[in-house]
Design a protein that fits this description.
Blueprint: E1 9-12, H1 20-25, E2 29-32, E3 45-49, H2 53-62, E4 69-72, E5 81-84, H3 90-124, H4 135-146, E6 152-160, H5 162-169, H6 171-186, E7 194-199, E8 202-208, H7 212-232, E9 239-247, H8 255-272, E10 277-281
Parallel strand pairs: 1-2, 1-3, 3-4, 4-5, 9-10
Antiparallel strand pairs: 6-8, 6-9, 7-8
Helix pairs in contact: 5-6, 6-7
Length: 284
């Protein structure tokens, strides 16, 4: 990664190589963009002419680089491509080069800041024990799905006899059970399914765009997969119970009401026999 305390590096291409002497005279470092040995991570600005702009675009696309480009004699102008009359004075050319370099630095700083914000947000929405989404992420996602004109299944699952593990073998053993259950369910998720650890040994699942039978099948498959996985990992006494509520039409009730309906279904599963799935079909 380039340290921007060093001199800016400008990549020249084809006809613009004639600018090399001027740039070096004013303290810049230059490289020939066509050189195979050119270190692309060191480049701060590209200068080319209109004829060679398509080649520069292709080059930048191949290396997934976002760099400001100064086009001599071009007719495009935005934050990445700046057109400049090839007959401008040296002073105007140098002023433009400094401006484009500043734009490039600001864009890099913005991308870095956005990346840090995304990282912090992901941390805030991730359960540190299992790596699944947490309750805050679940609440946000549920609100999003309530605004969509699709079917929706809200499912809750928790571990049967989990307290016995914590009491008998300690919380470290309980944590291991939670991690293994979470990983087994994660492996069974489809694209678009949303799985979160809501707290303790309770997990939440959101499934959209399916009929009631298929939605129940998804919930039951995850529940069984986790139960079998735990049994194979020496946790034979631990199974999962699941309860869900399904709406075929866009849902008009509040998120809390959906959670309560799914909780009642889960309670029925616990009272029935545990290690089973119970669901209800809601009416919008």
């Amino acid at each position: 990664m380039k340290s921007h305390d060093t001199q800016p590096c400008i990549a020249l291409y084809q006809s613009t190589l004639m600018l090399a002497e001027l740039l070096v005279e004013h303290g810049f470092v230059f490289t020939d963009l066509a050189w195979e040995s050119a270190n692309r991570t060191e480049i701060d600005l590209v200068i080319c002419d209109q004829v060679n702009l398509p080649a520069v675009r292709q080059w930048a696309g191949e290396f997934r680089m976002s760099l400001p480009v100064l086009v001599m004699g071009g007719d495009e102008a935005d934050s990445k491509y700046f057109a400049l009359d090839p007959h401008v004075s040296e002073a105007e050319l140098l002023r433009t080069v400094h401006l484009m370099l500043r734009i490039g630095r600001l864009e890099r700083q913005l991308l870095l800041h956005q990346g840090e914000v995304r990282s912090m947000r992901n941390l805030a929405l991730t359960d540190p024990l299992t790596g699944l989404w947490n309750r805050r992420a679940w609440d946000e996602e549920l609100q999003v799905r309530l605004q969509q004109p699709n079917s929706l299944c809200v499912a809750l699952m928790d571990l049967d006899f989990f307290k016995a593990v914590n009491d008998g073998q300690g919380h470290l053993a309980g944590d291991q059970v939670l991690r293994e259950a979470a990983e087994s369910m994660r492996q069974s998720l489809r694209s678009g399914d949303f799985l979160a650890r809501l707290g303790g040994d309770e997990f939440g699942l959101l499934v959209s765009n399916l009929n009631a039978d298929d939605a129940q099948g998804i919930v039951d498959r995850l529940r069984k997969k986790a139960s079998h996985f735990l049994a194979d990992s020496s946790w034979a006494d631990i199974t999962l119970s699941a309860g869900f509520v399904y709406y075929a039409e866009p849902v008009t009730c509040l998120a809390d009401a959906l959670y309560q309906e799914a909780s009642l279904s889960l309670l029925q599963a616990k009272r029935r026999s545990r290690n089973c799935t119970v669901g209800t079909i809601g009416s919008a």
